[in-house]
Design brief:
The chain contains ten helices and 14 strands. The chain has 357 residues and is α+β, with helices and mostly antiparallel strands. The chain has a four-stranded antiparallel beta sheet. A hairpin with a 7-residue loop joins strand 7 and strand 8. The radius of gyration is 23 Å and the shape is globular.
């Protein structure tokens, strides 16, 4: 097409020449904009899972954090630069670049995007600055600061922000509050924990709801690690719109379905409880992992360092409320029993096991 335009250029009027030149400038500008990093966010890496494992796996061999952003075009030369607190500059190539193309005629849905994933190794705790490049152009960039919490327990404890069941169309003030706390109190909050049901729903409006939600979420998720779990509103196409965006610990093994990590004095264990309900074939595998994870966290040496265990899910593992949306005791009774058999050191003198477990 460009060859034909060049061959016939001198055979047309001066006015048409100006129009063609203007159009070529517009096309070039649009192409550059398509590589601008979008929906930027970060999460803690596998090192925070391995920081108190008893299987001899060193957390130093695992990545400390994951940075993810999207572009409209594939932008295969995207990269990220990280200026460490020590003054050292590290340039990262994407560990993954995935083109997402989702079509569903029943919903009149055709959504496309490109996801770039960067893993940070050998990154010390502390505050660092990073800059994401969609391509080699300085115009296709986005930058921010982030702080990585320590891998070792701290007697001072660690603060996190927690939210869930959230829609920016009526709850933008929540995001503004989280962003203000995360940015004004630099480093005070180690992570933002999401409990599921984001946006209502990511796939709606041809995927536009998810894009808008993630752009708003960038106000805090680009500077404070986001550690979320999916809820029932993320179930569409087996959690595809949630999973292509996020890279939480143990993603390569479990694709955000379940994972755990350590922050301060707390061991967090996270479960997609709706996946467990719908996929009977993997229940035994999920329960086995859950049991082994709690057993490791409950080892005397580990429990002494991190006396608290927090279970994170969209629905509660146990509730006395008796209505279908909340009563999980029948389906998740095995999890409830495991949690009750992992008491804190304070409660080890007396069993809290419910009679139904």
């Amino acid at each position: 097409t460009w060859g034909m335009i060049k061959i016939n250029f001198y055979m047309i009027s001066s006015f048409t020449k100006i129009v063609l030149l203007a159009l070529s400038l517009v096309v070039i500008q649009v192409h550059t904009q398509n590589c601008v990093p979008d929906q930027l966010h970060l999460s803690l890496g596998d090192a925070y899972y391995y920081s108190n494992r008893n299987d001899q796996t060193s957390p130093n061999t695992k990545h400390m954090a994951t940075i993810v952003f999207q572009t409209q075009d594939p932008c295969q030369d995207a990269y990220t630069e990280v200026l460490l607190s020590s003054g050292q500059m590290v340039r990262l190539k994407a560990s993954e670049t995935n083109t997402i193309d989702i079509s569903d005629p029943n919903r009149q849905l055709h959504y496309t995007t490109n996801v770039h994933v960067f893993k940070l190794y050998d990154t010390p705790e502390g505050t660092h600055t990073y800059k994401c490049y969609g391509n080699s152009s300085e115009e296709a960039t986005k930058s921010d600061q982030f702080r990585l919490p320590t891998l070792t327990p701290s007697s001072q404890g660690t603060k996190v922000l927690v939210y869930g069941d959230h829609d920016i169309r009526m709850g933008m003030s929540t995001f503004n509050s989280i962003a203000n706390k995360a940015r004004q109190n630099s480093g005070e909050y180690a992570a933002v924990i999401g409990l599921g049901d984001y946006g209502y729903d990511f796939q709606d409006e041809n995927g536009g709801v998810g894009d808008s939600y993630m752009r708003a979420m960038e106000s805090f998720a680009s500077t404070t690690p986001f550690m979320g779990i999916a809820g029932n509103h993320e179930e569409y196409l087996n959690y595809t719109f949630f999973n292509f965006r996020f890279r939480l610990p143990l993603y390569d093994q479990f694709q955000n379905t379940y994972y755990s990590y350590n922050l301060g004095l707390v061991h967090y264990v996270c479960f997609n409880i709706h996946y467990y309900l719908k996929h009977v074939d993997v229940r035994e595998q999920m329960l086995k992992w859950f049991k082994e994870d709690l057993e490791n966290a409950n080892e005397e040496s580990n429990r002494k360092q991190r006396p608290w265990i927090v279970a994170v899910a969209h629905k509660p593992f146990f509730t006395s409320v008796r209505y279908p949306a909340a009563d999980t005791s029948k389906d998740y009774g095995n999890y409830t029993c495991l949690l009750y058999t992992s008491p804190s050191p304070r409660d080890r003198q007396k069993s809290r096991m419910p009679s139904s477990a």
